[in-house]
Amino acid sequence: MKKFLILIASAAIAVSASAQKTITLSLEQSGADEIITNFWNNDKAPHSNFETRDEKINERLHFSQTSQTDFYIYKADPAKATGQGIVVLPGGGYSKVCIAHEGFEIAKYYRSLGISCVVVKYRLPNLGHKEVPLEDAQAALKYMRTKGKKWGVDPAQVGICGSSAGGHLAAYTSTFTEDKAKPAFSILFYPVITGTTWATHQNTFQYLLGKNRTQNEQFYYSLENRVTTTTPPTILLLSDDDLTVPPISSILYYEALKANGVPATMHIYPSGGHGWCGHDEFKYSNEYKDALADFLKIQSKKAAEAKAKKSKK
């Protein structure tokens, strides 16, 4: 914990004209190769979350009260680059951005496979501004498709990864984005999917939609109801004993994917609870990494086949 406190003390803190403080971690703290600080904020982005308080970060590297979007860039070794890129969205119930393991550590793993990543410190919805995290995720996808070419990323092979509420945001982006801009694939760790009262993490939907959300709103943003035939191929990774986000949330999404003919695979590990993405001490760490590597190879092969088919026309 002392190490984290030291890291926090050395984080870059900016003060805007309105005296609102924002926080960006350093290259050393994040292990990133590059950082895009203040890609945009509430003044520049299409929508604001109307957060006026200073950004905060705790000893576990959980951001809160975010009002500025930062991109942490992880570039694959050109000799190993597969052409794939991934936008990584950490969880935190839409009240925090838990960036250490579900962001930085999983991005380092992808980088080791030859996959470049953008980890997003996104602006939180602040009790009802649901469009804000979505536009941050969509902006990161667009950024990687354009700038990632310099790192060997094929714009047609940019996928998305999210954990918990970040999993909701990844699936939200995969279902609400127009077809031509959707991610190439989705990786969802124990995602919040449904707003159904008995099967969800209620605080996630409260922060996304607000305290006065209606049943119709909860239904609309329950992502099993938004799946179509153009939803990207998806892998879901979860634990049977997760008491925070019930596994039924992922099962509903998986069933919707299969009903629409979308390639999907789901791995339910016997134990592990919630929040293990990026933690090497997770009992099934090797198993989930093998499953991920297989899924990513399949997506890469399909992309290559599609490219070859297109070139013959």
Give an account of the 3D structure.
There is one protein chain. The chain has 313 residues and is an alpha/beta fold. The chain has one domain: Alpha/Beta hydrolase fold, catalytic domain (Rossmann fold, 3-Layer(aba) Sandwich), CATH 3.40.50.1820. It has nine helices and 13 strands. The strands form three sheets. Strands 3-6-9-7-10-11-12-13 form an eight-stranded mixed sheet, with helices on both faces. The chain has a three-stranded antiparallel sheet with strand order 4-5-8. Strand 12, helix 8 (248-259) and strand 13 (264-269) form a beta-alpha-beta unit. The chain starts with a helix and ends with a helix.
How many structural domains can be distinguished in the coordinates?
1
* CATH fold-type name: Rossmann fold
List SSEs in N-to-C order.
Answer: HEEHEEEEEEHEHEHEHHEHEH
Unreliable stretches, pLDDT < 50, 5 or more residues? 1-6
